[in-house]
């Protein structure tokens, strides 16, 4: 093999012959042209006929260049294949080319190709020299550029490991990068600095007044500056540093970056310096981990409490203890606690009056906590901002409008079995343990070619007797499941029908828990299963904030309020009642339909995250605490009182909301491999949103979800700390779910472990 030498700055790189993957369903003059051209250019060439074999081949060889035939959609979907390749981590430096038909009349836009992940298109031309010239231009242009970019990873690895603090800014002095050593010496986290102008970062008063002026006039002329400078750490201390700032000349012969290398100046011996580094780190930890302490004792309780069957009452008790010390406390919760305490020592008339006060407080909208997250970790900030607000509601010039998709009818290719008995054995086999929490939904996704909802729905609805309850034929249920599933977007990496199937699975699992069964009626169970199935239908893969900022049709229709959740619920009923073939409600009487419809809408709307704390707090105050009080008073003697708490109409509503909420965001409580896969999918969806916000010039709702800088472990830790821990403590205290709490603990420790190693990825690098 002949190695090509490539110069990248001062680095000398050596490149193997190009690896090319051709994906053509059938051999024709065009594929032959490229084969010949590869041979002539001494490139290594592989040929794949199907998307599956192409992906398999790519995973094995990680080609530099992939050429996909985009001329015949009947053979395979070229854009879907491109997206699948782009979903593989190692493909970011691969160049992918679409071979397109000669345009008949109009030149089509290349935007759909670019959005799918293609780098360029090649208009079909089977002439061998044309193919050869195209390959040479690709090799010396984009492929070589990508090869150099790959070497950039090595340089960043060196920077990340360096003991010296490194800061890189743009020509306008906006901070673009700081390394871990910089974070630990200065006490800042990367996210607090990146994107800020240097002048926004507090300065030490110990420098001579005109020092900054001197430095700037030197480096703006393209000269290096070196000297002693006092920097101000996040905690306000000044630290004396030996600083070297180097301007980097780039495009157009202009200064494009400044690189600053800072070394703390220490007269004392070496050990002193390392102790200062440790101190700086612990200081950073204190600063950045205010939100981490939110787990308070819950971790300790979780790790020390017995999980055996005999320990379940002790465990439930510890869950209750955690409920009493809930860490994200709405003001209303504090008020209720004070009144409860006052009642104990009050004369009868006062106690009764306070009871009425509590009744009013429990049923009025006073539940959203005040979020003082200004000094918190940026991941928590962004998650709360991104999930719990409707965005800035700022319309930008280029308004983003969702195409009003014509609602699907049932696609003809979805010929599903007539009944449960006809489910293909391979699919039936993957669903054998669907009643277990550890059921692997991704096996079902693969076995059903990304149509898990129809099959799992058939099985679970049959287990719960939904058709009997609704008095509807199984064929109607099957058509309904198909058309609902067809309205989920398989192009979304997270909010697709596999997520719906996952939430349906968790819902069915929770419905089998003893306490839940005591609380709910058959109509509630049916409502919960239907709500889980439809709860994200037609989700565009973008958040409410994005839709509001973009002025999308949906946001305008729903007045920027619970936009997506309103759409999911409304569309579900439109689809269902539009056509008798799939109308599962056709044979139930009117009052029952009204009750069922109300319950389904209420549950789908409860999945909106702006009301998260309200739902959790109401559940704790109206159900957990009264139940705990009964248990403390007299063991299980008072079954009537327990029953009246569990089955009151208001409380049944709270149980159903809590049930679907927990099912909807139960990913961190799944077995580790499933948890990791879901984390990768939601991150990818948020990355795609950030990419689009930047392209469209929209406000970036969650800046930490930038695919180039995001730490997935940090974002997962924040999500668990902020949304998951308290909610699942409360749900576990009610429904008794030791296995989920164990998984949650394991997964939290897994993300912590990655974060402590400063890793940003889903998994640790192979040893």
Automatic annotation (TrEMBL):
The name this protein goes by in its record: Phosphodiesterase
Subunit structure, as described in the record: Interacts with RAF1. The interaction promotes RAF1 activity.
Protein's UniProt keywords contain Metal-binding: yes
Residues annotated for AMP binding in this entry: 495-499, 536, 664, 716
Documented EC number(s): 3.1.4.-
Annotated source species: Lates japonicus
Entry cofactors: a divalent metal cation
Residue span(s) of domain PAS: 151-222
Keywords noted in UniProt: cAMP, Hydrolase, Metal-binding, Phosphoprotein
Binding site for Zn(2+) 1: 499, 535-536, 664
